[in-house]
Amino acid sequence: METILFLAHTEADGSLGKPALEALAAAQSLGGTLVAGLIGEKVQPAADQIATSGATKFLGVSGTDFASSRYATDAAAAEALCRAAQATVVVAAGTSRFMRCLPGVAQRLGGRVDTHVTGLTTNGGNVTINRWFYRQRMEAAIQRAPRPWFIVVDPGSQPAWQGAAGQASVEAVAIALADSARRTTVTGIRAPQADAQTIRPDAALLFVTGAGWTKKQADGQTHVPEAEKLIRDFLHLSRASLGSSKSLVDLGGEGQAVLSFLSHLNQVGQTGSTPRHPKGLSTCCHGEEPHTVGWRFIGERRAISLDPNCGWARGKADVLYVADAFAVMRKVNELLVQGV
Amino acid sequence: MSTAYQIVVCGSLVPDPLQTLEPVTGPGGPALKNEMMLPAVLDPWAAHALYEAANLARLTPGSKVWLVSLGPKAKLQQVMMTVAQKVPFELVALDGPASGFTEAAEVAAVLAEAIQAIPGLDRSKLLVFGGWESASRGAGATLSMVGERLGILDQFQGVDQLKVGADGTLEILERIEGGRHQLSRCAGPPALLGWATGHLPEPKNNPQVGMTNMRTVMPALQRAKAVKLAGEGLTFASVALPKQLRETKIVKDASPDDIAKEVVAWIKQ
Ligand SMILES: Cc1cc2nc3c(=O)[nH]c(=O)nc-3n(C[C@H](O)[C@H](O)[C@H](O)COP(=O)(O)OP(=O)(O)OC[C@H]3O[C@@H](n4cnc5c(N)ncnc54)[C@H](O)[C@@H]3O)c2cc1C
Fold it and tell me: Which residue from B104, B157, B236 is facing A100, i.e. has the nearest CB?
């Protein structure tokens, strides 16, 4: 039987975030002996939060050195927890913090790692995971013999564990850190101002803008300021998350007039992100394959484009409106203001 | 303080993203249909890493860039015809599979060995770069494992910016959740950076750079060591394309007002 270590780090407020609770549910689903391993400045509140999860042990690495997301200290903590738990399978959330350090920890322990895992099943104790290859173009089911096997679960792909809090007794795992583990200092977080924050992972809708917003329109002119206002207003009214095609974000680097609030972080697709939202609305975007591979985990998809033969028409969207997105979005905003 | 850097960029090739890809089962496990025929490009995020490396080397005299690349020799040669015209580097070629279905840990072992064999490598100057994820396996695992093998404990992933301070410290911006960046300061090399997009546009082709690079690229390709990856203990139970295309309803000739109403109703559902 596998010994399954559910590995998690705390969030800034000391609790476990949704991605961690999703990984916990995934870890539980494998059966086996479940051990929880927690990393953070303080781990007791997090252990209490999942006290009723069925974990047979709660191991913790804590202290100010483990407050921030840093490779050397996170790797040392994860390594110590895996050793203490004698884990054969490690299940963790694919947060930026764990994506940075867990592959290295797998290497250190002579194990293997699968990241961006979107499915886990077990059959007679044999674990199979699913993940995508070639930027979400094909899905594979994988089994592995070497242990420990690190299974890093894509946030948003699993239901989150739900259960009552309680009181857990945490066994502290001590680590003697060498000075070399402190060569890096995390000095801060850079985030856009609240009203300029256009990437909203929890939004119900992904709103995608394409290069068409900056192209010459029927009157032979570009209308970038109006495009900017329509998009901003829509984001404000709908609370959608903003995604973009590569062509539109690249224009910025080429010194052309573009939407001031877009950056490469908004880019969706082959060399951009693959966000998860229940719905997606694409505007002024052609829907080419390198873009739409980033829509793999978008539920319902609609697109507004002037071109009836664009990529969206070819099985990539549920509905394609062949129309002028300026006219449609102007009206959409009006309706949203009226609260229709 | 100005340090000269030794910047080693790990980057392989991937099928041109505009190609349609189809999985097939070969003798050694899954592969892409007509893999050797597909036009290839330098893996996009690794390409950003290479441009950032070249830029840093340009700004810090005495620095040098290597590109360590594992791929089928003939394909590497094709891709180098363009890549070599972009920025100055010395190629370290390894002749083996560039498939996304290979095992990251095995690839890391081969890359780390090749890096360690670079003559005159000095850890106090070493920066290992690469893409934070490939467009093939897309795991973000290989680079980190290379770093572990080289004993590099200052690792960063999803890097969009690297600035060198007057005192030689490295200030690094990494992508984190929700469109934000984490800012870190690292004492200096050795360090490992998995790049996201960075800030540099793709450099224009420069035939002169191409000529200089080709003097070392061709011999490097000839010397390329043959590499076999066993995929020890790794089983692909299946590899499949997503099940179905959607049945797209195409709405033409509807007024913007009607479309807007439908869109709003759908958003609010
Ligand atoms: C290595 C590589 C990686 C890539 N990675 C990505 C990636 O990650 N993400 C990505 O998006 N692309 C990527 N691409 C680029 C991709 O192939 C396309 O070039 C890009 O997605 C096109 O962007 P677009 O649809 O916004 O622009 P365009 O192709 O210019 O399309 C604009 C569309 O807007 C429509 N339009 C114009 N005006 C209006 C209007 N008033 N109302 C409605 N519609 C209008 C036009 O009909 C057209 O369909 C990559 C390409 C390569 C080679």
Answer: B157
